[in-house]
Write a structure and sequence with these properties.
alpha/beta, Rossmann fold, N-(1-d-carboxylethyl)-l-norvaline Dehydrogenase, domain 2, six-stranded parallel β-sheet, elongated, disordered C terminus, binds uridine-5'-diphosphate-glucuronic acid
């Protein structure tokens, strides 16, 4: 059954959710305070890169299934269910800033003319939904019943459309059977297709979200800690991850050792969970997350130090040229928030190196976040006269590079593969000194011989 839905906040999450809800057959209005963004979305334009999303928005804007407005009153009038997708940025202390969420409640609730379900999708500290209830009760017009539910989102950047339409689970934090029924109705299609549903209360739903991201971060830092030990002992972290991953209690996913995690979610959610646990007087419960964060930071330090060791240093200043392949925090995204690649590039630049970056999608946001760096139009141009080449975001096109062309362009021969994802044999064959993070670099076996290990770890 088609539902009239509003999606409030049309950033990354909201724009995807609005388009996804229209694709599921609902009538959707997206709301944002930013007029320029609303105009752009209404003409199918996105201020960020996400494969398939502009097409999905255009598909549903044309017949009027999806429209955008700046007016909360219009949304209040139109929709029966309101999804709140506004940002909850991190303050200095690590705690989330809920001012956008409060502003939505303050604007929306007094305008409601009938009983309504307000569904939080934003990532919030556990306890937030409960804390909104008195605020909502005070603002609701008399005779209007406003119920709150929480339905966290688990989409991955770069796969946002797929993850919205085919969620690997739906978490419904509800306080009544009516709210559960309404949300099951919204998600009737993915539920019929087999997406599992977990129904629970409000704090559980809030906590699922941050704990999922903290768990993923922990998995990455775990394998990166093992990579540190591999570097000291001659063990190979890629084989180790394969061997661990065959145990289906562990699983192979998120055991990719390398430069570590970044982006707008994992680093923020780890710190937000620490901050919330401390607020609750239970900092000890998540003490290990400080270690997770520290391991992640050390991987970046390691790559910076290795690159500097290749350059000439005079009185603590580095001289030489560095080519950085990748600026986004991961492939298939132009997001440079807390990007490990850009962080390493900036630190090398601050140390004195001449740093040139190439990224297939993120040049514009990277340039605005790090204007002090130089940006090239392609990988070969970035590597021109470079003393050291750093592979820091594993875009598929980097795997297809011809190491001989880069060798001819570069001045030095050192490749640091910060994502352990290039094929070392072709780089070695082209004369590169390949260095990785805890994996062994193996020379392609010649006919009739055994493979030989040529070391090459950072
Ligand atoms: C993450 C979660 O995966 C989503 O489920 C969640 O919905 C989202 O945060 C969010 O909270 O909105 P995302 O930030 O898009 O999604 O990125 P991930 O795919 O999780 O990757 C995060 C970082 O971990 C990237 O920098 C990636 O390069 C790194 N990573 C990932 C590794 O270093 N090793 C791995 O094995 C996997």
């Amino acid at each position: 059954m088609s539902v009239r839905i509003s999606v409030i906040g049309t950033g990354y999450l909201g724009a995807t959710h609005a388009a996804g809800m229209a694709e599921l057959g609902h009538d959707v209005i997206g709301v944002d305070t930013d007029e320029a963004k609303v105009r752009a979305l209404a003409s199918g334009q996105l201020p960020f890169f996400e494969p398939g999303l502009p097409e999905l928005i255009a598909k549903h804007v044309a017949p009027g299934k999806l429209r955008f407005t700046t007016s909360l009153a219009e949304a209040a009038d139109f929709a029966d269910i309101h999804f709140v997708c506004v940002g909850t940025p991190q303050g200095e202390s690590g705690a989330a800033d809920l001012s956008h969420l409060h502003a939505v409640i303050d604007g929306l609730v007094p305008a409601l003319g009938r009983n309504t379900l307000v569904v939080g999708k934003s990532t919030v500290p556990v306890g937030t939904a409960q804390s909104l209830l008195p605020r909502i009760a005070a603002l609701a017009p008399s005779g209007v019943d406003v119920e709150v539910a929480w339905n966290p989102e688990f989409l991955r950047e770069g796969h946002a459309v797929h993850d919205t339409l085919h969620p690997n689970r739906l978490v419904l934090g509800v306080s009544s059977p009516g709210a559960e029924w309404a949300l099951r109705n919204v998600y009737a299609t993915p539920i019929a297709e087999g997406s599992p549903v977990v129904v629970s209360n409000l704090p559980t739903a809030e906590l699922v979200k941050v704990s999922a991201n903290a768990f993923l971060a922990t998995k990455i830092s775990f394998i990166n800690a093992m990579a540190e030990l591999c570097e000291l002992t001659g063990a190979d972290v890629a084989s180790l991850a394969d061997a661990l991953g065959h145990d289906d209690r562990i699983g192979r996913k998120f055991l990719g050792a390398g430069l570590g995690y970044g982006g707008g979610c994992l680093p923020k959610d780890v710190r937000a969970l620490i901050a919330r646990a401390e607020e609750l007087g239970s900092g000890r419960s998540v003490e290990f997350l400080h270690g997770v964060d520290a391991i992640n930071a050390r991987r970046r330090d390691r790559v910076v130090e290795e690159a500097l060791s290749v350059l000439r240093t005079v009185n603590g200043r580095a001289f030489g040229r560095v080519a950085v392949l990748g600026a986004s925090f991961k492939p298939l995204s132009d997001d440079v928030r807390d990007s490990p690649a850009l962080d390493v590039a900036r630190r090398l630049s601050r140390a004195g190196a001449w740093v040139t970056v190439y990224d297939p999608q993120a040049a514009v946001p990277a340039r605005s976040a790090a204007p002090e760096l130089r940006y090239a139009a392609n990988a070969v141009a970035a590597c021109r006269k470079a003393d050291v080449v750093l592979h820091l975001t594993e875009w598929a096109e980097f795997r297809d590079l011809d190491p001989r062309r880069l060798r001819d362009a570069a001045r030095g021969r050192v490749l640091i593969d910060g994502r352990n994802s290039l094929d070392p044999s072709s780089w070695l064959a082209a004369g590169w000194d390949v260095r990785t993070l805890g994996t062994l670099v193996t020379q392609e076996p010649k006919a009739g011989t055994q493979p030989s290990l040529v070391g090459g770890r950072v």
